[in-house]
Amino acid sequence: MLETTDTLQGAYLPETTQALRRANMLSIVAALLLASFYLATSLYISSHRLLWIDEVLTAFYTRLPAWTDIWKASTKGGDGLPPTYFMVVRMFDNWFGHDDFSLRLPSALAMTAGLLLTFDCARRLTDGLHGLIALAVLSCSFLPYYGHEARSYALYFMLAALALWVWTCTKSDKRWSAVLFGAVLFLGIAMHYYAILCLVPYAVWEISNWKPWRLPSLKMIAGVLGVTCAAALLWAPIQAGRQVFAPDNWQRPNFDTLRTAFADLFPDGLFLLALVVVWIAWTAVKDRVTPLPPMQPSERVGWFFFLIPLAGYLLGQFAHAFQLRYVIGTLPGVAIAFSCWLWRHFHGGALRVSVGVFLILATAGLAKQVLAARDPGRGYYSPIRQVIGMETPLRGDGKQFFVFCNQSRYMEALQYSKHPQDYALLMLADPRQMRELTTLAQYYPMQLWTLEDLKKHAQQTALLVPLQSNLDTLQRAGFETTTRFGQPLTVVYLK
Predict the structure, then answer these.
(1) Beta partners for 360?
(2) Do residues 317 and 299 both lie within one domain?
(3) Bridge-partner residues for 491, per DSSP?
(4) CA–CA distance, 188 with 469 (Å, rounded to integer)
C-alpha cells in the first residue's frame, strides 16, 4: 500500500548522491535544533505558569492515594480523560517531584517527539527541506500551547503522528507493521477517547481504493482491532465520562465550532497562506514547464485528515462534547500533505520557493513561541496569588473560613494554598455540573457547603471574588452582605 519514497533518491545521478546526503543530514540537524527549542521553551513555560482548572484536576486525579483509585474515580464519572493518561502522568510526578513542572513534562516530551516524527515522515516521502516545512507547519498551529499543558492532547498528537509514520513508512504486507499500527491506535485511545478519529483518514483511503476482490489491508484490520480493544477495555470510564457531559452542557457540539475549527487549527493560517502564495508567485520559474508528478498515496491520506473535525463533530453528538482540541490528531496529516504538495510542484529546480516557504512558516512559529515564553501567564488569569496573599489580613478580621462560589477558584486554592482546610466551596450550582469535584471529594478532604452550612458560620466567613449573581442568590436566601475589599479582589462579609 503506502511505502516510503526514499527510493526516489535513486533517480538522481550518482554525482549528486553525496550532496543529497549532506543536505539530508543538515535537515536532520535543523529539525533537532527546532525541536529542542520548542522543548526548552515548553519546559520553561511549564515552570513559570500556574495550572488552570483542567490541569488542577489532572493534579488531583494523578495524586489519588493509590493507582487503583484512579480507575475507580474514572468509573464514577470523574474527569473525562482516560484513567491511563493519569497513570502515565503519575509516573512522571513520582520521578520528578510533585510540582507543576512534573505534571506538564509528559506533554512537552510528547509534543517534541511528535514534531520529529512528522518531520521524519515527510522527509522520507519528499526530502529533508520539505520535512522541515512539515515541522514548521505544525509550529504555526495551535499545537505549541499543548506542549506546556498538563492534559493529554500532546500525547494524542504524538501517537497520531506515530500512526501516520507507521502507515506511510513501513511495508504494508508486514505483520509486525500492522501490529504496530494497531498498538499505536490502542495507545492513542488510552490517552484520549477522541483518538479513535485517527482511524478515519485511513478508512476513507481504504474505501476510495476498494475493489470487490480486495480485502482490507493488514494495517486497517489491525487498526480496527486496536480501537475496538481499547474501547472495550475503557468502556466503563467512557460511559462514566459521558455522564460528566450532559446533553445541554457548554461543550455540546454545535455547527459554529465545526465551521471555525479548520481556521482555528492554524490561528494565523490565512495570513501565512497569503504570504506563501505571494512568495510563490514572486519566485516560481516563469519560463519553463515542469512535468507535475502524480499525487502520492501518502499525500492523499494526509489530505483526508481534514475529515477528522467533521467526524469529531458527529462523534460529539454521542459523547455530548466537541472542542477543537479533541481533533488535534488532524495536524500531522495536514502538515505532511502540505509538504508533499509543495515538493511535487517545486522540487525540480525551484529550490528557492521551498526555502522561502520554510523561512516564512518557521519564523512565524518561532516568534509565537518566543512571545509565549516571554509572558508565560499570557492568556489565562487567576487571582489565586492575591487570594493567598489576603489570608493573613482576613484572619486578622476574625475570619476562619474563606468561601468561593466558583469551582475553579476553589480547586486552585486547594492546589496552591498552604492552608487548604480553611477554604470551602458554596454549592450554588447544580451538583450534576460538579460531578468531577464530588468524585474527588470521596478521596480528598473538601468542604462543600450548602446554604445551611453558610448560615452556621456566617460570622466567621469571607466570600472571595463572588459574582453579582451569587450575591443576589444569597440576598434572596436572607443573607445581608457588605463589601470588605474591592481591590485587589472583591471580598464580601456576611452579617
Answers:
(1) none
(2) yes
(3) 464, 485
(4) 42
| 281 in a structural domain | yes
CA 334 – CA 339 distance, rounded (Å): 9
Domain extent for 165: 6-374
Q: Say whether pLDDT at 373 is over 50.
A: yes
Q: How many separate domains does the chain show?
A: 2
Number of H helices, E strands in the chain: 23, 6
pLDDT in tens, 251-307: 788 888 899 999 999 999 999 999 999 999 888 766 555 677 888 899 999 999 999
42: nearest Cα among 131, 105, 129: 105
Same domain, yes or no, for 370 and 391? no
Sign, CA dihedral 42-44-47-52, equals negative
Model confidence over 299-316: pLDDT tens digits? Answer: 999 999 999 999 999 998
Of 36, 54, 82, 33, the residue nearest 190 (C-alpha):
82
| Average pLDDT estimate for 342-355 | 83
Shared domain check, 405 and 305: no
Q: How far is CA 382 from the centre of its chain?
A: 21
Q: Which bin fits 478, alpha (ψ -120 to 50), beta or left (φ > 0)?
A: left
Instruction: Give the range among 123-132, 361-370, 479-488 with minimum mean pLDDT.
Output: 479-488
Residue at 208 is within a domain: yes
Give strand pairing partners of 401: 461
Residue 1 lies in a domain: no
**Is 105 in contact with 58 (CB distance < 8 Å)?**
no
Q: Which of 155, 147, 149 is nearest to 85 (CA)?
A: 155
Distance CA 352, CA 285 (A): 10
**142 plus 214 within the same structural domain:** yes
Instruction: Identify residue 438 by its one-letter amino acid code.
Output: T
DSSP character for 195? G
